[in-house]
Amino acid sequence: MVDSGEIRVEAGPGTTVVRLVGEIDVALREQASLSMATALTGVDPIVVDSTDARFVDSSGIAFVMQMKRAADEAGLDLSLRDPHRVLRDVLEIIGASGLLRDADEEPAPVG
């Protein structure tokens, strides 16, 4: 049996969570596009949660970076919950770690 991944969008009170589960790779391209569109339709802050991700390839990193850019353009706050550093370590390697704040940190004041 081949491990697969999933991207879920869960709208909660005051936050939209984009949950990365299992292996996040190019096989999820269509699911990533649909998830991004769904997450960006709301007005609540977005948390990308990779707690249950075991692996994230370059297309998964690209998905997160595209989510960040699109959220910025829509005026939505986006943060990252990554307790196992599945994404954060790669973001540090490519010099992009400062672009996403940790979900447990307070957002920077606007203005």
TrEMBL record:
Q: Which SUPFAM superfamilies match?
A: SpoIIaa-like
Under the heading CDD domains, the entry gives: STAS_anti-anti-sigma_factors
Q: Which residues form the STAS domain?
A: 5-111
Q: Check the record and name the Pfam families matching this protein.
A: STAS_2
| The name this protein goes by in its record | STAS domain-containing protein
Organism, by scientific name, is Cellulomonas fulva
The upper taxonomy is: Bacteria, Bacillati, Actinomycetota, Actinomycetes, Micrococcales
